[in-house]
Amino acid sequence: MAVEVRIPTILRTYTDGAKAVEGTGSTLDELITDLDSRHPGLRERVVDNGELRRFVNVYLNDEDVRFLDGIATKVADGDSVTILPAVAGGAR
């Protein structure tokens, strides 16, 4: 089962510059673990203590996984996952 994962610029150092990578798993947790096996260090940037990091937003087919089952959200072949670090700040 292949799931496309879109990688933000700040995490592309872990994917050799790739904007998107493919992984497998039946849940988001398994998918991230699979990706980390080929792109070491990626998991620790997205997951902390078994949960998604507070300032990292993850979308499954454009739906925020925090409103689904979080890291336990089911994924399926052909799904698309987007990882986006939260951005704050700006000028007045």
Automatic annotation (TrEMBL):
UniProt xrefs under InterPro entries: Beta-grasp_dom_sf, Mopterin_synth/thiamin_S_b, Sulfur_Carrier/Prot_Modifier, ThiS/MoaD-like
Source organism superkingdom: Bacteria
Pfam families: ThiS
PANTHER family according to UniProt: SULFUR CARRIER PROTEIN CYSO, SULFUR CARRIER PROTEIN SLR0821-RELATED
The protein, known as: MoaD family protein
Originating species: Allostreptomyces psammosilenae
Lineage, top ranks: Bacteria, Bacillati, Actinomycetota, Actinomycetes, Kitasatosporales
